[in-house]
Amino acid sequence: MVSPTQQAQPQTDRRWWSLVGLCLVTALVWVTASDISIALPTIARDLGGSMDTLQWAVNGFFLAGALIIVGGRVGDIFGRRLLFGIGTCLVLLGSIVAGLAPSPLVLIIGRILEGIGAAAILPTALAIIAVTFTGKQRDTAIAAWIAVCWGAQAFGPLVGGVIVEGLDWRWIFWINLPIGLVALAITWWATPETSEPGAVRSIDVPGVVTLVGSLLLLSWALVQFDTLPTAAFLGMLLASVALLILFVLIERKVANPVIVLSIFRKPRYDGAVLANFIANFVFGGVIFFMALYLQVVEGYGPLEAGLLLLPATIPILLINPIGNWLGRRVGPAWPTAVGMACLAVAAVLLLNLSGDYTALIAPFILIGVGIGLQITPCAATAVEDPGSAGEGVVSGVFKASSMIGGSLGVAVGTAVFQSSARDRLAEILPMPSAESVDRVLSVLTGGVRLEDVASLIPGDAQALITDVFDSAVGLAMWPTIVVSLIGVAVAIVLLRGGPPASGPVH
Predict the structure, then answer these.
(1) Taking CA atoms, which of 167, 350, 424, 480 is between 20 and 30 Å from 211?
(2) Are residues 119 and 150 in the same domain?
(3) What CATH number is given to the structural domain containing 365?
(4) pTM assigned to the model
(5) Residue 247 burial by Cβ neighbours in a 10 Å radius (0-12, 13-18, 19+)
């Protein structure tokens, strides 16, 4: 008897159209993930909200996207095309909610809905590609899909800048509707339904709750780091760790786990997941802060800021084919190690912002090159041998590392940034109260105009804000340096071996 997975492969007449549809929806997800970064100052002026609040417009999307792990499992059980369609509809629904948002809370709810949709789309898209294509065509299809993932994420800020400056920030959500509907129609027409043969139709709810709860507590603690009492912060971290341990214990005992833990016994898979996590950690944090820096400190408009971020994004697309070529010839270790080293050097160069945009070009280019070298070798390695876990689970965990990495990159960076900025403002302001520090701090998100708080600031207000922002971002780069150096070691130790297998998926 032919399995549903095997049935997908002979239908070669439409599978490239299927790839087009999958890539269009995937592009929509990643543009949605990143275009909001350039719009945050404008949204802050329109809806209000502190950096803590607005950060959830970014992190709400990414944390909900951590459900990708569940999405891979659900797609394996109930059908990948079905779940892909449901996820697309959720992204469109979230876009409507966010586009109509009268307050930051409603905006965040819309973003969470979009994130849940992304959690259904990303693992099923990669799993569909993995079972539909074989051999070199499979490598080509995965490389194209990964390039779309990062290309859309890379050009998101520019797209957001064009829309915010030319129309209105709400159009970054409205534009999703026609694109999503057309892409869904193409995918539904061209993609045969596939699922994992013999998959048990049950979901590990306790596992899902403990995993998502652990990630939520960790992110919440980091977001509130500068305002929480030390005991409360440590308590949330311990609770997050406890839930993660409970999750592992549940997964080891339950009959049908949401994650088959045996996949982590493969060093190359672990290396691919960790490297992908680190790449997104770095990219998410740097783009978040540089989008604010260019607008709030340097005074550029949204469109100009989006254009000025291109040196960090275009190299991803230009270098990705080189990374793919290297990965297929020498294996994933060295492209990934060199890429991580580039990210570490870039973060070092961003420790001291000079106010001169030309000084940002070199670190921006290094970020694009570093990510471009490693993304496809790591993705191909992640799906080279799914084993009994299934394509949906291994691709789901891999893409979940993208979402979790992006979320924690923003959360960790913001925790360091806000703590440093608060301490610096408390030293500088003549009468530093919690209210005055919060109000001046809001200038750094664009939520409050500098002239509105000038009376609270002694001397040259613009110079002070620039000094505070520069020193705080410099400190926020240290976590990026550390994780990038860890990434070099991860690549060398865990990703050793030849090129990823490119044969049929078993």
Answers:
(1) 480
(2) yes
(3) 1.20.1250.20
(4) 0.78
(5) buried
Q: Are residues 248 and 263 in the same domain?
A: no
- Domain match, 333 and 391 both: yes
In terms of domains, do 141 and 216 share one? no
326 inside domain: yes
Domain count, the chain: 2
Q: Which domain holds residue 232?
A: 204-255
CB proximity list for 408: less than 8 A, separation 6 or greater: 218, 219, 222, 281
- Chain-centroid distance, C-alpha 198: 32
Q: Is residue 464 in a domain?
A: no
pLDDT band, very low/low/confident/very high, at 506 (cuts 50, 70, 90): very low
Kindly state whether residue 505 falls inside one of the protein's structural domains.
Answer: no
- Is residue 448 domain-resident? no
Per-residue pLDDT band for 4 (boundaries 50, 70, 90) equals very low
191 with 211, same domain: the answer is: no
**pLDDT band per the 50, 70, 90 thresholds, residue 505:** very low
Q: What is the pLDDT of residues 310-335, one digit of tens each?
A: 898 889 888 888 988 888 888 888 99
DSSP structural state of residue 501: P
- Token output for 471: 């020193």
* 98 and 67 co-located in one domain: yes
Long-range pairs for 321-327: beta carbons < 8 A, 24 or more residues apart: 321/143, 321/147, 322/372, 322/373, 323/372, 323/373, 323/374, 323/375, 323/376, 323/377, 324/139, 324/143, 324/376, 324/377, 324/380, 326/373, 326/377, 327/376, 327/377, 327/380, 327/381, 327/499, 327/500
Same domain, 237 and 302: no
Tell me the residue length of the chain.
Answer: 506
**Which pLDDT score, from 0 to 100, does residue 392 have?**
63
**pLDDT tens sequence across 191-250:** 888 776 666 667 778 888 888 788 778 777 776 666 677 788 888 889 989 998 998 898
